[in-house]
């Protein structure tokens, strides 16, 4: 059920960003995959920021691979793919706690919100960099002339 809801959320977000029809399902699939990775890791580790980082990393790898396959920019898949990971309720909880005067709780939730947002950005960036590095090394290795002795 979580996969389906994450898929629908990412699919709808892709529609809002006016992504081509041929890429809508793939963008929704990216969101579903990233949410499943997050959920599985969160259940195993009980660490929100770590789980978000690895889910964003998976989203980034998927986006880069689909960008090559579908011949379109990677952000077409990565932006809708991170929608399920965005810490909206955590940010809301932080602001609400500030208004209610629960400052220690607000500080904890604020740090979690900032950490989660940073984990999303770093996960996507690391995946993109790693994918491009491996791709360039692979291309360089293929073009290297063979020496016959």
Give a short overview:
By secondary structure, the chain is an all-alpha fold.
What does this structure look like?
The protein is 83% helix and 0% strand. By secondary structure, it is mostly helical. The protein has one domain (2-143). Helix 2 (21-45) crosses helix 4 and helix 3 (48-70) packs parallel to helix 6 (103-143). The chain is globular, with a radius of gyration of 18 Å. The model has no long low-confidence stretch (mean pLDDT 92). It is found in: Cell membrane. Residues 2-129 form the Threonine/Serine exporter ThrE domain. It is a multi-pass membrane protein. Keywords: Cell inner membrane, Cell membrane, Membrane, Transmembrane, Transmembrane helix.
Overall, the morphology is globular
Number of helices: 6
| Low-pLDDT runs | none
Count the beta strands.
0
Largest sheet: none
Helix-strand topology string: HHHHHH
How helical, in percent, are the residues? Answer: over 70%
- Number of spatially distinct domains: 1
> Radius of gyration, rounded?
18 Å
